[in-house]
Amino acid sequence: MSMATSRTDPLTLEVVELIGSVVARYYEEYEQAAAEHSLTGAQARVLRLLSLEPLPMRRIARKLKCEPSNVTGIVDRLEARGLVERTPDPSDRRVKLAAPTRSGLATAARLRDSLDFAREPLAELSAQERRTLRDLLRRMVGDDDA
User: Domain residues for 51?
Assistant: First the structure.
């Protein structure tokens, strides 16, 4: 089967449509949950990322696939609210890391807890089905060995 055919077969088109629906619902719920904490969706995503580990601006930008200058503005606003602080990187003092404050970690946890999206539908899948779905999604984003 040629590449042109494989991209337009009904099954592929249906899968693409379903992925689009999942992404749209995820962003809609993320924006709602963020707004409840007086955050934009982008601020909430940066805070969630930093709650996993402090990161330099460039890494945040790479992970969120956006411009470092955008990340700087987002971190500035989170810092002004006392949710994030900039600290020197212990391994390279010239690099600044964005790190969540205690308040930022608490907000990130409340945000995570308020996101119900997909919890119920995922709960209907067996553990093996969830693992299979995770592995397929990892392959799709090129993260096989995560």
Answer: 7-115
Per-residue confidence (pLDDT) for residue 132, from 0 to 100: 95
Number of folded domains that form the chain: 1
Q: Are strands 84-89 and 55-56 parallel, antiparallel or unpaired?
A: unpaired
Q: Is 56 helix (H, G, I), strand (E, B) or coil?
A: strand
Q: Tell me the average pLDDT across 116-122.
A: 72
Residue 85 belongs to some domain of the structure: yes
Q: What is the mean pLDDT of residues 80-87?
A: 97
CATH of the domain at 108: 1.10.10.10
pLDDT for res 72:
94
Q: Is the dihedral of CA 73, 99, 140, 130 positive or negative?
A: negative
| Dist. CA 60–CA 78, nearest whole Å | 14
The pTM assigned to this predicted structure is: 0.74
